[in-house]
Amino acid sequence: MQRLAPALRDDDVPLDLISLIKTILAATKEISFRVSQAQLGGLMGSTLDENIQGEIQKKLDVVANELFKDIVLESGFVKAISSEEEDTSVAGDENGKFLVSFDPLDGSSNIDINSLIGTIFSIHEAIPEMAADSPDQFKQAGHKQVCAGYVLYGPSTMLVMTTGKGTHFYVLDRTHGGYLLVERNVQVPKDTREFAINMSNQRFWEAPMQNYIADLVAGDAGPRGEYFNMRWIAAMVGDIHRVLSRGGIFTYPADNKNPDKPYKLRLMYEANPMSFLIEQAGGLAMTSKGRIMDIAPTDIHQRVEVIMGSANEVEKCLSYYK
Ligand SMILES: O=P(O)(O)OC[C@H]1O[C@](O)(COP(=O)(O)O)[C@@H](O)[C@@H]1O
Ligand SMILES: [Mg+2]
Ligand SMILES: [Mg+2]
């Protein structure tokens, strides 16, 4: 099995980006260790603080954020970082070539039940004319990402990453301490019979999503004439990993549960990096109005509607909005 650096060189990834990726992965190895020791180290449960998103932070959210932020900012390659757990962007090296956005721990509600969680990251090139402490430099569309990935802290610690030359799977090999390439150019099947959505929000969705899901749930007795299975891990990393592994449609649609918060998932830290991975694997990543990676961001913490996965099924879902 190929090691990470030669696999990246095969994709013609520039050396400075390889160095940054290695730095990010060093942080994820440390987080992976802390996650595995969380209960023994008193890291289960919540803090008393809320993050900028208005969500109570778990102790591991804070630890993972500090670890990732410190390691990445010390690298010298990074002009600034933005994180789901930080109020605003944090300046790094004025001459740094890259911007890194991340969700240090995705699926926080799974921490205390020893279930799937992960770290999601996204890399853009820095804009030389903009100051390192300006959050505006992060307002770049997703299609400008030069790398995106996640690390899944599951039975195996897995890295899924793209630099725009396909989406590849790696596994952390604890015998030598590095990630090994296990599957190159993963492909999301175009068709699927599996969907992922938080069904408990059903009554709050817009009519097109209500109608689409109702037709899936109706199964072979309904207009689709086929049985559809449902899965919901409650961690986007876990649900997207399943979609990348065997196909499926994943959606967190608009809802009116809380009128001030029509969408749940974050553009910079969740939707854009996952969209890059899904598109590089031949899938589609959309809102009901267009491609996620074409959205011009207006705020680093903005939230967005997400419909992604197997291409034909995403198209089918979108047809309900026309
Ligand atoms: O609570 P719900 O509705 O099941 O939402 C689950 C979604 O929320 C998230 O956990 C949000 O991520 P964080 O844990 O980083 O806040 C997604 O990963 C997941 O898809
Ligand atoms: Mg998240
Ligand atoms: Mg998070």
TrEMBL record:
Its main location: cytoplasm. Belongs to the FBPase class 1 family. It is found in: Cytoplasm. Substrate binds at residues 106-109, 198, 264. Binds 2 magnesium ions per subunit. It comes from the Bacteria. This is Fructose-1,6-bisphosphatase class 1. Keywords: Carbohydrate metabolism, Cytoplasm, Hydrolase, Magnesium, Metal-binding. GO terms for biological process: fructose 1,6-bisphosphate metabolic process; fructose 6-phosphate metabolic process; fructose metabolic process; gluconeogenesis; sucrose biosynthetic process.
